[in-house]
Amino acid sequence: MEILRVENLVMHYDLDGRGWVRAVDNVSFTLDKGMCVGIVGESGCGKSSLGLTILRLLPYNGVIKKGEILLDGENILAVPEERFRKEIRWKRISMIFQGAMNALNPLFTVGDQIAEAILVHERTSKRKALRRARELLEMVGIDPERVKSYPFELSGGMKQRVVIAMALALNPEVLIADEPTTALDVMVQARILHLIKRLQRELGLSLIFISHDVSVIAQMANYVAIMYAGKFVEYGRIEDVFLRPRHPYTYLLLKAVPDVKGKPRRLEGIPGAPPDLADPPTGCRFHPRCPFATEKCKKIDPNPQEVDNMHLVACVRADEIKDELGEITW
Amino acid sequence: MVEPLVKVEKLGKWFPVKRSFIEVLKKVPQRYVHAVDGVSFEIKKGEIFTLVGESGCGKTTTGRLILRLIKPTFGKVYFEGRDVFSLDKEELKEFRKEAQIIFQDPYGSLNPRMHVYATISEPLTIHKIVSTEAEKYELVVRMLEEVGLTPPEEFLFKYPHQLSGGQRQRVAIAAAMILNPKFIVADEPVSMLDMSIRASILNILLDMKEKHGVSYLFITHDLATAKYISDYIAVMYLGKIVEMGKALDVVDNPLHPYTKALIEAVPSPNPLTKMKEPTVKGEVPSPIDPPPRCRFYDRCPEAMPICRERDHPALVEVDKGHYVACYLYHDISEKESLKM
Questions:
Q1: ipTM of model
Q2: Sheet of B183-187: strands edge to edge?
Q3: What does DSSP say about strands B316-319 and B322-324: parallel, antiparallel, or unpaired?
Q4: Are A312 and A236 in contact (CB under 8 A)?
């Protein structure tokens, strides 16, 4: 059952008259209830901007040019800000921000900070809010007595749990997690990922999981979108996309990632660097780095087309190069 | 028996913990962070030896000690048989030429006011390698080609802010390689780079090893990267090496409970290989004056009484060339044990 649908979303950053940065360009996807959609891409591909657009937390120069974001069928881009703030942001859709664990206020206890999130939105007493903070801490695997702790008294993993508790304080239906384990040690990362999975299951959360880390996405997502230079170049079930990629970028990206549990194999990087989104190349944005590019790739800017059931690819040569790409043997 | 290029013997670095004025007056005893606590290993010519571990395990400090960037609290480092810490001025200059370092952050390690040519050619000037400007130019151009910054003319006079992260790291590698060093410490050289760039940088390092026989001490927290690049891997935990051996032996057949847990926790990019929840308890304890028992005791899922009663276990050779510091394996070859 669908809970969130993003349709033809276009978001640009205004460079004060010096042009536009096309951060999110014609992005569409559907999030079903209880599912996890992973968004993966390199730095600057627009994946965090996409998260901020959904929560309508863009800086002053971020302009939503086109598209719809439907939450239970209602276009939340058309909702007045006042109502959005009171009824949707944090209450129905909330977010774990990248680096949030280092943005906790050092002067207040974590209990106060969680309670604040509740008090801003709900007419309730401080005492009740603090009681809820204790429940939330317990839910994310922290001793409830820690409501009295200050951020400096907690380890990195615990601070990240507090941030997750804050995001869940108002029982949201949709949670956007932006790089929630980046900068954590691998053992702590594994625990946080398991925690998010458990909460997703127990609370029936629907998840948008944003990461640059292909491996983390492989473990978390049911569906995955590969984002490159503001666009979705491939979208589908995680097994389809990661085992039988159909877009050259996805294919090359997966070929560049080492697998600790796989057979040793030669890795190859992708030559070049992602384009400047203020001045992207004509045609397909990946064509300057693509070994399969032809003349038509320089002219046609492809949109995602269904190549298989629930598997979309934005490549004009998708069918021609299908056999050349083949399967990824991990 | 070939002489190893680098030999590390019971190397240790303890950092004193700052005491307040009151504590000094009260004669509170000085406490120490045992950053590196008696590690021994050898790096042979043309080999990539990797130190892997979580943050704070002492891997970077070990690298800095080997290059004599900091003084050890105890222990020795030999480079081609010579004690690194008792080199005289001339010998030290020679050592600085032969042992180089590549840092993690290519945004911080390059001088923003020097263009690529100045950065890469500076070591040539310092060590008086070239006599003419033309010679210098030729060496720099050849180096740029080798690290994949082609055509070189396009990059020569660019400043760091005009380059991408991957390109900067290539410049840093070129600057480290220009003197034809025998040994390089590469401290997390790819962890700040995007996935699609990492493999290219790792391959440059591998090519340098093949072509010039350079040896590396590679430092990383990422076991997947370690498995890809290394000949040998040593796993560090709280200043100690807990397991050491051929890369594939350690990663595919880990023996120490910590290594096992670490490898299980690494997510695989294969969606069919599911990650397990770590069985290891708690978090890394404080490295300040650790109690005299196995460093991993408090978190170990297989802890036994002996692990608490005795000091941290010595490394023992369990399989050929595969060492582990754990009492689970001590009955196998106790008498062959290396002294820590």
A1: 0.90
A2: B99-102, B183-187, B215-220, B48-52, B232-237, B240-246, B322-324, B316-319
A3: antiparallel
A4: yes
Contacts of A261 in chain B (CB under 8 A): 263, 266, 268, 270, 273
Q: What is the pLDDT of residues A41-78, one digit of tens each?
A: 998 899 999 999 999 999 999 999 999 999 999 999 99
Find out whether A209 and A222 touch, Cβ atoms under 8 Å. no
Of B203, B251, B265, Cβ closest to residue A186: B265
Asked if B201 lies within 8 A of A187 by C-beta distance, the reply is: no
Question: Looking at the partner chain, which of A191, A213, A260 has a beta carbon nearest the beta carbon of B223?
Answer: A260
- Nearest Cα residue in chain A from B225: A258
Can you give the C-alpha Rg of chain B in angstroms? Answer: 22
- Cα A231 from Cα A45, distance rounded (Å): 8
| Residues on chain B touching A264 (C-beta within 8 angstroms) | 227-228, 248
Exposed, middle or buried, A174 (CB in 10 Å: 0-12/13-18/19+)? buried
Edge to edge, the sheet with strand B74-79 lists: B32-43, B6-16, B74-79, B82-83
Compute how many other C-beta atoms are within 10 angstroms of the C-beta atom of residue A82. Answer: 8
How high is the pLDDT of residue B340?
A: 42
Q: Which two tokens stand for residue A229?
A: 């230079």
Q: Are A259 and B270 in contact (CB under 8 A)?
A: yes
Mean pLDDT of chain B: 92
How confident is residue B338, by pLDDT bands cut at 50, 70 and 90? very low
- A-chain residues near B261 (CB < 8 A): 187
Residues 6+ apart with CB under 8 A from A185: A156, B54, B55, B221, B284
Q: Does B54 touch chain A (CB under 8 A)?
A: yes
Count of CB atoms within 10 A of residue B16's CB?
10
Closest to A149 in 3D by CA, of A109, A112, A114: A109
Task: Tell me how far apart the alpha carbons of residues B83 and B311 are, in angstroms, rounded to a whole number.
Answer: 29
Residue B10 DSSP SS3: strand
- What sign does the dihedral B20-B24-B25-B26 (CA atoms) show? positive
For residue B89, give the DSSP letter.
H
Q: Which two tokens stand for residue B44?
A: 């042979």
Q: Which residues of A touch B200 (CB under 8 A)?
A: 268-271
Encoded tokens for B265: 């926790």
The torsion of the CA quartet B129, B133, B136, B140, rounded to 10 degrees, works out to: 150
- Distance (Å, whole) CA B298 – CA B300: 6
Determine, for residues B268 and A330 on separate chains, whether the beta-carbon distance falls below 8 Å. Answer: yes
- Supply B325's token pair: 């510091």
Give the distance from residue B46's alpha carbon to the nearest chain A alpha carbon, in angstroms. 19
Interface contact flag, A269 B228, Cβ < 8 Å: no
Cis geometry, peptide bond prior to residue B151 (ω within 30 degrees of 0)? yes
Domains of chain B as residue ranges with CATH: 6-336 (3.40.50.300)
Closest Cα in chain B, distance from residue A39 (Å)? 14
Amino acid of residue B241? I
In tens, the pLDDT along B84-112 reads 999 999 999 999 999 999 998 888 899 99
What is the rounded distance in angstroms from the CA atom of residue B307 to the CA atom of residue B295? 9
Contact A193 B267 (CB under 8 A): yes
| Cross-strand bridge partners of residue B83 | B78
- Residue in A with minimal Cα distance to B252: A261
